[in-house]
């Protein structure tokens, strides 16, 4: 229930300042690996948001509670790919998804950061929330242990399709981990809808950055 006191955390400075000729690359260190992320200023999805840092940090420091090794993981709205890369380093079979215009940068970051590692090869796929789910990810074939989502809720019109997508992929046994910076009343309204559909626990709060990390599972009838 939401009444359990969540852990209060701060987002640690995992960003490694570099003297670099490129203003568009950020260097992070998670799970003992340096990760280089190229951002793109043209798209919302191509910037590292605080929710991604919060979830990456949480997965790194709670590996016993959420063991991703050999688990099937789907990230929706993967953006720059940071969370998918961290999940991959932690041993998951990762499918990173986002809108078509974000995929090139996403693929670049994921392949660049995982190609020389002994990990399951991650997959990058197009996923427009609420569209073509049955065709592209038929239930008979695709079952995920974890759904990861970070900063997928902000001022946009696609909240209903987003919720429908979460519902579609969350089967019995699936754990949805969603980290988000809460900025607007619409964010809290969306949280309320999520709580109406799923069993929801707040795992952690990062007060400085207004990020909440939530765990949701499907209600068993």
UniProtKB/TrEMBL annotation:
Q: Which SUPFAM superfamilies match?
A: S-adenosyl-L-methionine-dependent methyltransferases (SSF53335)
Q: Which domain of life is it from?
A: Eukaryota
GO BP annotations listed = methylation
User: Where in this chain does the entry annotate a coiled-coil region?
Assistant: none
CDD domains found in the cross-reference section: AdoMet_MTases
According to the UniProt entry, its GO molecular function terms are:
methyltransferase activity
The record's keywords, sorted A to Z, are: Methyltransferase, S-adenosyl-L-methionine, Transferase
Q: Which residues form the signal peptide?
A: none
Q: What is this protein called?
A: MT21C methyltransferase
């Amino acid at each position: 229930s939401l009444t359990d006191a969540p852990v209060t955390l701060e987002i640690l400075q995992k960003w490694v300042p570099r003297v670099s000729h490129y203003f568009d690359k950020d260097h992070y260190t998670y799970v003992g690996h340096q990760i280089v992320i190229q951002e793109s200023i043209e798209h919302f999805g191509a910037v590292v948001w605080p929710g991604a840092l919060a979830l990456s940090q949480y997965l790194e420091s709670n590996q016993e509670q959420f063991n991703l090794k050999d688990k099937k993981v789907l990230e929706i709205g993967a953006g720059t790919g940071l969370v998918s890369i961290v999940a991959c380093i932690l041993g998951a079979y990762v499918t990173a998804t986002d809108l078509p215009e974000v995929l090139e940068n996403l693929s670049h970051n994921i392949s660049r950061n995982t190609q020389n590692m002994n990990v399951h090869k991650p997959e990058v796929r197009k996923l427009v929330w609420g569209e073509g789910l049955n065709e592209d990810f038929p239930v008979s074939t695709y079952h995920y242990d974890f759904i990861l989502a970070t900063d997928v809720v902000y001022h946009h019109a696609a909240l209903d399709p987003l919720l429908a997508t979460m519902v579609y992929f969350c089967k019995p046994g699936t754990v949805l981990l969603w980290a988000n910076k809460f900025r607007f009343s619409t964010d809290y309204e969306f949280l309320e809808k999520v709580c109406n559909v799923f069993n929801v626990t707040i795992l952690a709060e990062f007060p400085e950055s207004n990020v909440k990390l939530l765990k949701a599972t499907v209600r068993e009838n």
